[in-house]
Structures are given as structure tokens and as C-alpha cells.
Amino acid sequence: QVQLVESGGGTVQSGGSLRLSCVVSGSMFTVNRMGWYRQAPGKQRELVAGISRGGSTNYADSVKGRFTASRDNAKNTMELQMNSLKPEDTAVYYCKAEVLTKLIPSGMDYWGKGALVTVSS
Question: Tens digit of pLDDT for each residue in 28-41?
């Protein structure tokens, strides 16, 4: 069973910084593409940042230049450094990973339960 657990959420003032972490654990073979998504109240879940196994990243236009995604393949972890936070960044942030296992060698997407980030003005 593959599990994803996010940590590092909290409340910060506008202009502040937070760092989110995601740990992938369980019976797995390889973790391929990973990503951070967020869902604000009343809105659809949206991609914030994606990162390939090789480290290539892509970001939503709204966070470019402020957020940085990184990963450690040896530890099966991913982080999101969020700087210059704005009230509109307030949301639940979710970690997603494509994991290849012996049971499903073609890969399957797994999600964490989310971490709340609140940015006060």
C-alpha cells in the first residue's frame, strides 16, 4: 500500500514563506512524476507545480518566481518552497505521485490527504 503524507502547512502573513514536504512510503518500485496541487474554498483543484523524476519542473503562472519544487529520489520525498505568499495562495495543498509497483507496473496516481496553508493579509 502506497501512502503520501504532506507536512509543513500552517498560517503565515502575506509576504511570508512556508515549506511543504511530501513523503511517499509503502511497497513501491519507482516514483515517477510528482506534483503539488491546491484547492481553495469553492474552487477546483489546480496544479501548482510538477516535477519529473529527472528534476524538470513546471509551474502555474500564478506561482512562477515565488514557488520552487524539488525532490529527493533516494528518499522518495518532494518539497515545495513557497515565498512571497499572498492571501490568494490560501488553500489545501495536495501531493500527488505516479508510483510504479510490482502489482501495477504501469503506474498509478496516489494522493496525499492535504495540508492547509492560510495566508493572512
Answer: 789 999 999 999 99
